[in-house]
Amino acid sequence: MSVLITTEILGEHPVLTSVSTKLDLATAWVRSGDGLIGFGEYKRFEVKGENRFNDARTWWNQQLSEFMIKNNVHGSGSGPILFTSFSFDPNQPSILVIPEIILGQKNGKSWITWVGSSSQPDLSKVNNSAVSGQILWQGGSISEQMWREQVGLAITAIKSGQIEKIVLARDITAVSDVEINPRNLLQRLEIDYPSTWLFLIDGLIGATPELLIRLSKSLVTSRVLAGTIRKTGNEDRDLALAASLAKSSKDLEEHEHAVKSIADVLATFCSSTNIPESPFVLHLANVMHLATDVTGVLNDSAKQADIFTLIAQLHPSAAVCGTPTNVSKKLITELEQMNRGRYAGPVGWIDAHGDGEIAIALRCGQLAGDNKSIRIFAGCGIVAGSDPDNEFAESQAKLMPMRTALETL
After folding, report:
1. What are the structural domain ranges in the chain?
2. DSSP characters for 138-180?
3. What is the model's pLDDT at position 309?
C-alpha cells in the first residue's frame, strides 16, 4: 500500500528554528536561515557495522518505493527527506530518520512536506517558552592531564614514523536541573554561528563548519578544515593571527593531509576536480580555521557512485581521523579511551533524487534521553609540530560554541 507524501509551497517564509507545532522538533539542518527542519518521526532505522552505508541506502530505497510522491515544488531538498547521523566507529549505532512534517526554505522560497494526509497540517504555534536552568559541568571520559599525555604519546608515534597525523578527541558533560530545549539551543547557536551548518538528529545537536560532501545532480563539493587558531576578540590582533595561521608550517601540514584525503577519493569518481593551491582562513566567532573548498563533477561511469558511496569512501577523512587512516583509527582506539558515538561522523540529509548535504558532526553534543544532560566533544589534529598544552587550549576553544550556547539558554 502506497504512502502519500505531499510537498507544497508555503505562503509565508518561516524562521526555521523558531517554528513550533504540537509535534516535537525531531530533526534540523539550517545554515544562514535556509535549510530543513522536521517534526515528529514517521519512521526511524538503526544501522551498525561495516556495511552501514549500504544498509542505509537499501532502507531508504525501500521507503521510497512505498511512497506516492506529490511534489509541487521540485528542486533539491524538496519531497521526502532522509535525515542521517552516522557513527564515527562502524560498530556503534547510526540513526536514520524520516520526519512526519518537513519545512524547507531556500533562496526566499519556503515549502512544506508531510506524510499521510491529503490536507496540509496545521502549523499553528503552541506555547513553547524557554525554561532557564542551572548548568553544572562535569569531567569527561578521561582527565585533562591524561589527555595531554595521550597527545604526547601521539607525537612520539608520529616522530617515530608510525603515522603522519592523528586526531584525538575529548569530552565533557553538562548537567541541567531542567530539560535542555533543543530548539532554544539551535536558536542560540544560529545567533553566534550563522555560517555553520546547524543540525539536530536523535539528540545529536551542534553547529559544524565542515562539509564532508554536497551532491547536487553531478556536482560535488567538500569543505575541508584543518589548522586552527583561537580568536582574541581584538580585530587587529586577530588579523595578525590569521596571517600567522596562513603561514604556519604545522597547520599547513595538518591541512595538507586533510585536503589530500578528500581530493584523492573524489578524483576516482570525478571527470574533473578543482583544488585551490592554498587554503583560505575561515573566521568563526571563537576560532579561525584553514579551509579549502574542493569541487568536482562526477564522470558518466561514476553514475552509480551515489551519495552513500561517496560518504562511505570519504569517511573517516584525515580531518577527523588521521593519516594513514587504518593505523590512525587503531591508535585512536588505544589512546582516546572513550566512545565518540556519532561525534565526528557524517551527518545531514538526502532527498528522493539522491541529492543531499552531509557534514562532519563537529562542535556538537549528544543529549541524554531525558534531555537533562549533554556530552559535548572537541578534537585536535596532532602532527609532529604539535604541543600538548597548545592542543589542549585548542580543544577548549572548540568546546566554546556548545558551552556558551548552553550557559546562555
Report:
1. 3-122+133-407
2. E--SS-HHHHHHHHHHHHHHHHTTS-SEEEEEEEEEEEESS--
3. 96
